[in-house]
Structures are given as C-alpha cells and as structure tokens.
Amino acid sequence: MSEQKFTRIKNFINGEWIEETGVEYVPLYNPSTGEAIGEVPLSSEETSLAAVDSSYEAYKEWRALSLSKRMGYLFSMRQAMVDNQEELAVSIAIDQAKHISEARGEVRRVIEIIEAACSIPTLIQGETLDGIAKNINGRVVKQPLGVFGGVAPFNFPALVFGWFIPYAIGVGNTFIFKPSTQSPLFMQKMGDLFNEIGLPKGVINIVHGNRSIPGTWYEHPKMSGVCLVGSTPTAKKMAEACGRGGKRSMLLGGAKNYLVAMEDVNWDLFIENFIHSCYGSAGQRCLAGSIVAAVPEIYDELIERVVEASKKVTVGDAMDPDIYMGPVISAKAKASIENYIKIGIEEGSKLVLDGRNPELPDNNKNGYFVGPTVFTDVTPCRTIAKEEIFGPVVSIMKIRDIDDALQLIREQKFGNGACIFTQNQYYTEKFISEADAGMVGVNVGVCAPHPYLPFGGIKDSHLGTDKVQGKDGIDFFTQNKIATVRVAPPAGVADKRENKDTDKSVRSCVAQ
Predict the structure, then answer these.
(1) pTM given for the model
(2) Would you list the domain boundaries of the chain?
(3) What number of CA atoms fall less than 13 Å from residue 194's CA on the CB side?
(4) Helix axis angle, 425-434 to 402-411, nearest 10°
(5) In the CATH hierarchy, which top-level class contains the domain 257-454?
(6) Nearest to 324 by CA among 283, 376, 267
(7) CA–CA distances in Å: residue 110 to residues 28, 191, 376, 435, 474
(8) What is the tens place of the pLDDT at every residue in 307-330?
(9) Which residues are catalytic?
(10) For the chain, is the Cβ count within 10 Å smaller at the N or the C terminus?
(11) Is 80 helix (H, G, I), strand (E, B) or coil?
(12) Domain range 7-253+462-482, its CATH number among 2.30.30.240, 1.10.1790.10, 3.40.800.10, 3.40.605.10
C-alpha cells in the first residue's frame, strides 16, 4: 500500500472547499497502523449556519428544477462514482479501516441505491380522486420540504450518504451532511465529484465537527428535518430536540441481532453466513450477528463448528487482500470491546475463543485490532447478551425451541434484525411473522434489504417517522399537499351551446 498523505480536512460550503480557521482540529488515524494521517476541524457554529443559509438559498431554484433535470444529476453522480470506484473504496479502507473488499462492496451498494433513487419519477407520483361531488375532484401532490441535515456514523461513510442524499435531493430538497470525524475521507472525494458533475452550488454542503453542528439545526427556521445513523442514546436526544423544534426526524439507532439455528440447519450455509455476519466490518455494523441461538439438538456441534471457523479468520491491515478482517475504528473502541470481554468472563460466561492481542505483522502492531471472540453458556440476563458491543464478539446461547428464540427477541430493547437458519417452512413463516424486529432473514446472516426496499428497525433501533430507501425515503423527504378542485364552465359557455345551430364557425368533418 502506498504511503497515505497527511490530509487537513476541509468543509464544502456552497460548492467551495473551505479550510476552517480559529477552531480545534482533532487527529485522524489509520486504524490499521495507528498512524495519524490527517486532522479534522470541529467547525464553528458560524460555519454550520453558513451551510444552512447556502442550502436554503439553493433550495429556491433546485426545487423548481424539472424532475428530469434533477434525475440527470443523479445519473451523473452515479456515473462519477462508477468511474471512481476504486479511489472511493480506498478512502474508506484507509480511515474507516473496513477491509478493501468490503469497502468496494459498500461503494457498489451506494451506486445501486442511486440507481433505485432514479426511479423517483415513478415513486413520487401523487393520487387523484374524481367525482367527490358534482364537478369536484381531489388530488394529492408530493412536494419537497426544504433543507435537511444528516449525521453519519464512522462505520458506513458511503452507505449513509446513499441512504440520505440521493432521495433527499432527488425529490427537490437540499442537504447538509456531517460525516464522522473518524471517517471523513469518502466525503472529501465526493465533494470533488459534485463539482465535476456540475451540481448547483449549495444543493449539498459538507460540514465537519461534533454534536454542536446538528445542535444548530433543531430550532432553525430554515431547516425542515434531521437524519441520523448512530447510537440509540444519541437518537433519543435528537428525537427530543427535533420534537421541540418541530422538525421531521429519521433516526436509526443501535442493535443486538440474533442468528437462530434450528435442528435442520444447513451447516455449510450457516457457517459461511455466520462468518460474514459476525466478523464482517469487524462486527461494527448495525446488522452484525451478535447472539447465536441454537436448539439443544445441535448446540454442541454448533459451538465446535463456530470455533473452528472463527479460528481461521485472518486479521490484519484493511488494505491487505490476503486477510479477512481489519481493525476496529479506534483505540477507544478496542478498549471498550476488551472491557466487554472482561465483563463476560466475570459474569460467568465461558470464553472459548479469546480475540484479545491477536498475532499481527510488525507494521500493524500499533493498530486497533480485536480478533474473533466467542462466548458460550451465555444467558439472556448477561451484559454481553443485552448491550451492543460493536465488535467481533459472539455470544452463543442455548434455546429450547423456536418459541423460546422468538421470546428472547421480543424481550430485548432493540429490534433491528434477526435471522433464522432452517429448511422448515413452518419455522420460516412463524419467524417472519413473529420475530419482533424490523428486518428479518431466512438462511442469510445479514438481512439488509435490497435498495428498492425500506431499511430500518423497530423499538430502540429506530426513532422518528419513515425508514431509509425506497418508498419510505420518498415519503420522508416529501410532504403531501391536498388540492380540492371544483370545475365549472366559464361564463358564456351555456349561451354558446344554445346558439350552436346558428354558429357557422364550427363545421362538421363530413363534406357539405
């Protein structure tokens, strides 16, 4: 891998790169090496407000632009990402430290989301109701609202951009995006692409900083709504603030996802999906498998197979094509995950695979690595079974039957995703119907919906109104205007009808 140039992150305001002055900068690290590769501004309130003003002014003309021209910009954005796929993926692999293969997959998924958003002309069509009364018709028209702000987490800098921005601007809004200070490089690349495709100034602004940035949005009269992907405590604070300010909110929070294995599990299919679900992105995603629940008939065999497969997962630099799992995002995250491992041991769960201090090449010794970690004999009351660890830590739990699994899923505070592995149609339909989660999967380890379908959980995993993607994305970023129209002939039409026999200006198409 070539040496990473030290980067001073800039804000993107009104189509210009602006270097923030007079504020604190925080270091940006490459988690694979622990090396400082840049610094990120904690931008001022004035900068955030300047972005609001820029987006508000841009909205006036952007919303009036024809739908076909807005779609043209989305098509251009999609093509620009296709043309720069590798550079965008590398930016994610460097500061977010997602393995390069997964970073490429994330970029490809965003391209697919933009392609789905290009169906807005069909999804945004309104409704009509004729014949409400004599000469009275009704009409529902979907219209944009104004300026939206979005806050992204560190773990999916590209995907969250895709969830929010294409739909928001596609229907006619403008957008202010705050990337995570831990993974800002992707949006630095995207800002250049916005200018390359000629996107009008102010339609998308990028502001870096801490929670003070969205703090300027909640009561601002020029803001219409706020979006977040982050932790549940943060989502709840933002929901309260949006409520006070009368803003729309789309807030995705934390998760604790179950993988349920029944007695007829297909082992090869399960293990392949287990590895991807629990160790992909080093367990740092909202749909990562965290608890594996197995019925007694296969419990011991599942442990044996899971541990054997987990030991084969290679850990190392996110840019190394020969390894599977990269580091976690920071030294703080590594310490938090290791503390959860300690708590798991202290509370009586059995640590059968310890991922602390994995063997690493010399150039990664200072990186933030935690290897695959597996606990068995975990009960629902244990901390590691209840709290989101956000790392490659798996808790294996014995369940009596499918009803027991459904009860455990029902009783937890999160409701993001849950998957079952079975060939039994009864189990399949019962799980889909009764699993208390916003997204469910059958024989898949990551139940992320296709971009044409909504994405989002329930309970403490989702606050606000609609979910992201698909028709939900259209509904969130638009408001319904209802028109009641009475039609009547203009004055004089009745008289003309009475005199139609003497009116020689209207002639038959039949030869006279």
Answers:
(1) 0.93
(2) 7-253+462-482, 257-454
(3) 25
(4) 20
(5) alpha beta
(6) 283
(7) 24, 15, 37, 28, 17
(8) 999 999 999 999 999 999 999 999
(9) 286
(10) C
(11) helix
(12) 3.40.605.10
